[in-house]
Write a sequence for this structure.
């Protein structure tokens, strides 16, 4: 009887463990979701990197859970922060809960109340106190803040205040509280400590709410949808003649030739490589430096290259379309650089195939 009782208790214990495991397995794991979707930019411990240091007490004390949820949902169009629209509400809540585990203080409650102020006066104050970090139109700090190999002007990237993601996530009260108290551990100082009055701060909040210009960020992200992944021109010349024409066109665009190689170079012995598949590598180092300063991830598709191949009796000249690639990086400034590079590719391909 005792043995049977012991066996019964063992089975009951195993059943409870199984049920418990199934229940916990069914709940989203905030730590794992954060590691997968957030840590690359915000750091594994939330202390920041490319993104805002989420574990910073001054940040946690100034943002509501709703702000965090809306930021995850809407992202920051034209900036590094993507929109995670495919995550379920439960997954978003799990991430927010995990982020909050780094802070034990009181959480601000989101308020829909609007703050009234003098917009004209707020504009003057913004130009004097805010534009130096946040940009003259609230467009945010320059580039992305990815500075692994060079110094950074500021320890974190000033956010884009005119961004639709920020505007939909932030409440007036949050903006006001940030202006009044500042953010300890960042360049954001208390405006009260700088001599502004609470009425001045109300005027600033009113002006921040009028900031526009974010529509072109959304438009820039949508541009890549209708673009071909590869730019292709047909050449009337042989592969060898076309490669020479590409080289002349590259130099004509003030780019420096890096190397010429077959597509199979390094994959097969030289005598087994197909001679009718050639890549021309080139670079403009001034342009490269500026592009890397905007976003070092651009190095993933640099240096520039044009491929010449013979296929079905036709000689084709091809290049990856920068306009198709740029929206993947969610960076408005990089979009502009890719627009320029797109035109350079078009000019080279057209010149080489005349």
């Amino acid at each position: 009887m005792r043995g049977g009782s012991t066996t019964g208790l063992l089975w009951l214990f195993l059943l409870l463990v199984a049920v418990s495991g199934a229940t916990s397995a069914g709940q989203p794991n905030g730590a794992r979701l954060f590691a997968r979707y957030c840590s690359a930019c915000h750091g594994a411990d939330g202390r920041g990197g490319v993104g805002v240091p989420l574990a910073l007490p001054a940040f946690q004390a100034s943002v509501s859970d709703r702000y965090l949820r809306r930021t995850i949902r809407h992202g920051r169009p034209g900036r590094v922060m993507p929109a995670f629209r495919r995550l379920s509400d439960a997954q978003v809540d799990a991430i927010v809960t995990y982020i909050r585990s780094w802070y034990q203080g009181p959480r601000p409650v989101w308020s829909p109340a609007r703050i009234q102020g003098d917009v004209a006066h707020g504009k003057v104050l913004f130009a004097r106190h805010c534009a130096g970090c946040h940009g003259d139109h609230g467009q945010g700090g320059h580039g992305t803040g990815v500075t692994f190999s060079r110094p950074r002007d500021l320890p974190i990237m000033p956010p884009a205040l005119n961004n639709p993601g920020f505007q939909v996530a932030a409440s007036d009260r949050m903006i006001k509280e940030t202006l009044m108290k500042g953010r300890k551990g960042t360049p954001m100082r208390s405006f009260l400590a700088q001599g502004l009055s609470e009425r001045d701060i109300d005027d600033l909040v009113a002006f921040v709410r009028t900031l526009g210009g974010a529509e072109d960020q959304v438009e820039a992200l949508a541009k890549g949808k209708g673009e071909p992944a590869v730019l292709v021109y047909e050449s009337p010349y042989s592969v060898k003649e076309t490669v020479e024409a590409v080289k002349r066109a590259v130099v004509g665009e003030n780019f420096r030739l890096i190397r010429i190689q077959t597509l199979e170079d390094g994959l097969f012995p030289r005598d087994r490589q197909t001679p009718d598949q050639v890549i021309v590598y080139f670079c403009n180092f001034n342009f490269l430096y500026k592009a890397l300063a905007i976003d070092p991830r651009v190095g993933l598709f640099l240096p520039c290259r044009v491929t010449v191949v013979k296929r079905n009796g036709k000689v084709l000249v091809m290049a990856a379309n920068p306009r198709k690639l740029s929206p993947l990086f969610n960076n408005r400034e990089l979009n502009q650089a890719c627009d320029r590079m797109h035109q350079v590719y078009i000019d080279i391909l057209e010149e080489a195939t005349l």
User: Anything to note?
Assistant: Strands lie at 230-235, 256-262, 277-283, 304-311, 314-320. The radius of gyration is 27 Å. DSSP finds 16 helices and five strands in the chain. Residues 111 and 210 are 19 Å apart (CA to CA).
